[in-house]
Amino acid sequence: MPSILFEVTDQVARITLNRPEKLNAFNREMAFALQNALRKCEPDDIRCVVITGSGKAFSAGQDLAEVVDPAGPGMSKILSEHYNPVIQLISDLKKPVLAVVNGVAAGAGANIALCCDIVVASESAVFIQAFSKIGLIPDSGGTFFLPRLVGRQKASALMMLGDKVKAEEAEKIGMIYKYFEDAAFRDEVEKITKTLANMPTAGLAYTKMAIQLSATNTLPEQLANEDALQQKAAATADFKEGVQAFLEKRAANFKGK
Ligand code: T3D
After folding, report:
1. Which of 1.10.3470, 1.10.12, 1.20.140, 3.40.50 would CATH assign to domain 201-247?
2. How high is the mean pLDDT of the chain?
3. Which end of the chain is more exposed for a tag (fewer CB within 10 A), N or C?
4. Is 4-197 a CATH 3.30.70.3270 domain?
């Protein structure tokens, strides 16, 4: 069984973490396979990327058996070669990346989800910053994204105490976009995916860029960035189509360009 499943339909790339018997915990092979899958999402004809898990989990983070395996990659390589490239690839993709958290998301599994542009979860999903329980610090971008999502106080507590955060609570505190009842989850995810794949993809990419730049910019710098990126958005065919469709009182037919 491949550790990562990859398929493209209707301009949506679907990546499934696929080691269900290990709750989709990451080993070296799976981390590299995820990197490859993310690289396959770079072409413009893919307009939305979905990352989810197979079976009952999203991902339990690092495969702890690999960490203690003398033949394993060793701690010094795990972040620099496995997770950091994954986070960077997701961040750099010029299209929306949707994390579909179908079950437990722990450690690096949680933080890979949180670095995605939009995170949705099923009601039964839980998020755990599991690192403190084994003496590690949060990684895979967790110390960057979580405080920005929920504020420093809440992030510190969740990271130090390693609480299990249920999907409903995760939505309430702004950690994720939305949670859905398990029975409705699949349909709701499909609706969001389809919507994203039919939107002005280049405009969404510039939006993603502007949000990322805001993390370190001053207001004047950010206003200048908005100006520059808006010029680019305004030069797209989708902008012309959007305005034309509005004036003609019809649905826009965006091509992602
Ligand atoms: O260099 C570095 O390593 C730094 C990188 C760090 C990145 C990280 O992600 S560190 C954090 C690693 N993850 C964890 O500490 C989470 C460990 N897992 C758990 O705490 C629990 O499994 C869960 C809360 C996620 C789920 O609990 P539960 O009760 O639903 O399932 P379970 O029974 O604990 O697990 C089911 C199976 O999956 C079990 O295998 P078995 O006994 O049926 O053969 C369990 O051992 C396996 N499993 C779960 N998590 C991992 C794992 N196997 C390897 N590694 C795991 N992380």
Report:
1. 1.10.12
2. 97
3. N
4. no
Q: How far is CA 73 from CA 44, 64, 81, 126, 249, in A?
A: 34, 12, 9, 29, 58
CA of 107 to the centre of ligand 1 (A): 9
To test the ligand 1 pocket, which listed residue (3, 56, 58, 64) has its Cβ within 8 A of the most ligand atoms?
A: 64
pLDDT at 75: 84
Tell me if 19 CB under 6 Å of ligand 1: no
Report which of 184, 43, 17 is spatially closest to residue 105, judged by C-alpha positions. 17
pLDDT tens-digit map of 199-217:
999 999 999 999 999 999 9
- Domains of the chain, by residue range, sit at 4-197, 201-247
Q: Which atom of ligand 1 is nearest to the CA of 133?
A: 15
Cβ proximity of 119 and 99 under 8 Å: yes
Distance, CA of 77 to CA of 62 (rounded, Å): 12
Judge if the beta carbon of residue 65 lies within 6 A of ligand 1: yes
Each residue's pLDDT tens digit, 160-182: 999 999 999 999 999 999 999 99
22 has a pLDDT exceeding 90: yes
Q: Whose CA is nearest to atom 40 of ligand 1?
A: 22
